[in-house]
């Protein structure tokens, strides 16, 4: 089974970049509900595009605590 955090299709809008009140950013699968306390920074985008946005936003992505995709 493929992890929900792995790329889907090259150009498929499969992921989101999330941010919380502390300014932490996270990669999140677009099919899963956004966990409480987190907000999407934009629309779903391709995995590689989300990784590029994460690299610009924060040096260390966080994982939403207690959240299950």
Explain what the structure shows:
The protein is α+β, with helices and mostly antiparallel strands and 69 residues long. The chain has one helix and three strands, in the order βββα. It has one helix at residues 47-57; strands spanning 15-20, 25-29, 38-40. Strands 2-1-3 form a three-stranded antiparallel β-sheet.
Identify low-pLDDT runs.
Answer: none
Helix coverage percent? 10-25%
Label the structural class.
Answer: alpha+beta
Number of strands: 3
What topology does this entry show?
Blueprint: E1 15-20, E2 25-29, E3 38-40, H1 47-57
Antiparallel strand pairs: 1-2, 1-3
Summarize the structure.
Helix content is 16%, strand content 20%. It has 69 residues and is of the alpha+beta class.
Task: List key phrases describing it.
3 strands, three-stranded antiparallel beta sheet, 1 helix, alpha+beta, 16% helix, 69 residues
């Amino acid at each position: 089974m493929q992890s929900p955090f792995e790329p889907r299709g090259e150009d498929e809008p499969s992921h989101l970049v999330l941010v919380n009140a502390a300014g932490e950013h996270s990669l999140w699968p677009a099919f899963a509900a956004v966990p409480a306390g987190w907000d999407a920074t934009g629309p779903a985008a391709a995995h590689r595009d989300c990784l590029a946005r994460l690299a610009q936003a924060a040096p260390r992505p966080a994982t939403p605590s207690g959240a299950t995709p």
